[in-house]
Amino acid sequence: MSKGFALNNQDTLVRVACTFVFSLFAFFYLYYFQADLLTVTQHVLSQGQTHYNHFIGAILITLVLLFVQVATANLLKKVKMAWAFTFVPSVLCLIMLTDVHPVLNESKLEFGAGVYLCPIALVVYLLLVWLAHSTGMTAAFNSLDFKIVRRLWANLAVLFSLMALACLCGNNDRVYHVRIHAEQCILNGDFEGALDAIKHCDEPDENLTMLTVYALSRNKQLPESLFEYQLKGGSKAMMPNGTTTRFELLPDTSFYAYLGNCYRQRMQTMHYLNYQKRHKRMNKVTADYMLCGYLLDKKLDLFVREITKHYAVNDSVSLPKHYEEALLLYTHLHSTPYIIYKNDVLNADFQDFQKLENTILSAQRKTALRDTYGNTYWYYYQYE
Questions:
Q1: 133 pLDDT exceeds 80?
Q2: Are 74 and 218 in contact (CB under 8 A)?
Q3: In this predicted model, what pLDDT tens digit does every residue of 278-293 receive, in sequence order?
Q4: How far apart are CA 289 and CA 295, in angstroms?
Q5: Among 32, 33, 114, 180, who pairs with 95 as Cys (CB 3.0-4.6 Å)?
Q6: What is the pLDDT of residues 308-317, one digit of tens each?
Q7: Helices and strands: H and E segment counts in the chain
Q8: SS3 for 109?
Q9: Distance CA 135, CA 295 (A)
Q10: Rounded to two decimals, what is the model's pTM?
């Protein structure tokens, strides 16, 4: 009697410990790592009609996963297998839920192989449980007189393996996670949060370039800080085109409303901006978009001729940082420049840039210059 009572107490401890650990894992995995992915998934599946709440969603999904575990335990209670194995169906459900990826060059999402493999894995799991029970393997295992510590660690080892499998099979695309997190921040008006997320991503991407430009513009920092970020795609990446660059959450209409006008026909960035210019619809936002577009494409001549239409360019007026860098670079590159821009402090920095460039071996030059001048337009123009 006392032995059976001790075993029951051990089983209770193992069950409580496993349930607690899995509940914590599921909640934090859903709330901190996959929250933005689930937001995008619900947004796409509901066609923008509903919004996913990170906290409430994580709580509800965790409760559903626990319900699946309890149902599995009750269904297989006669088998009396290790408690950690009753979490297998819950983990498979979690994998199916988070194995979602964007379709390349299309404005939609698709579920990964987990949607097809997990149901098969569930069937295999049930067959293995039945086989183990019918052959007496589970009965033999349960008859072993394991100490509580061994029983607990054996169950936790199985559970940690299942949790690792869930993390491995879910969406782990770091760039995509940064992208959708930045977009979520922009929707919430947290432009600093979006820019901070993008700045800590080491892999340049056209979508991140579009979000960087938009967030900087909304934060009144576009011509001052643009080239402090890793950029890819030139001016074409500054606006959504529905394929290589597109928003997952932010409506295109909101983006174009900010720029000034939304048209039925999609246009590439510079085509759109020139159209606005021809129809006298330019404003401060679109002017900076156009000027930065020329800089991204390294078209300094067009930049210089355009900037005089929107800014006073003379020695007594301070311009945004990257505009000054571009004007000084233009002056040095042309023997008969359209504009001669002078700035003694900036010119000294540029001479230091050139001196460092000429004294470092070509194999190490880019890395060395990035460390000191990676946040300047000079570095972007020469090495990106």
A1: no
A2: no
A3: 999 999 999 999 999 9
A4: 10
A5: 114
A6: 999 988 877 7
A7: 19, 2
A8: strand
A9: 72
A10: 0.86
Can you tell me whether residue 221 is helix, strand or coil?
Answer: coil
CA dihedral 345, 347, 348, 351 (to 10 degrees): 160
Amino acid at 122: L
Give the long-range contacts of residues 108-115, CB within 8 A, separation 24 or more. 108/44, 109/40, 109/41, 109/44, 112/169, 112/171, 114/169
Instruction: Report the C-alpha gap between 101 and 37 in whole angstroms.
Output: 9
Q: What is the mean pLDDT of the chain?
A: 86
* Token pair for 142: 């349960």
Report the sign of the C-alpha dihedral through residues 174, 177, 182, 185, in that order. negative
In the chain, the amino acid numbered 229 is Y
User: How many angstroms from the chain centroid is the CA of residue 284?
Assistant: 29
Q: Which residues contact 102 (CB under 8 A, 6 or more apart)?
A: 108, 109, 110, 176, 248
* Cα–Cα nearest to 244, from 226, 269, 222, 274: 269
Tokens 């026909």 locate to 265
CA torsion angle 248 251 252 255 (round to 10) = -110
Give the percent of the chain with pLDDT over 70: 91
Q: Would residue 237 be called left, alpha or beta, if left means φ above 0 and alpha means ψ between -120 and 50 degrees?
A: alpha
Are the C-beta atoms of 138 and 87 separated by less than 8 Å?
Answer: no
76: nearest Cα among 21, 134, 23: 134
- CA 155 to chain CA centroid, nearest Å: 34
Identify which has the larger pLDDT, 139 or 307. 307
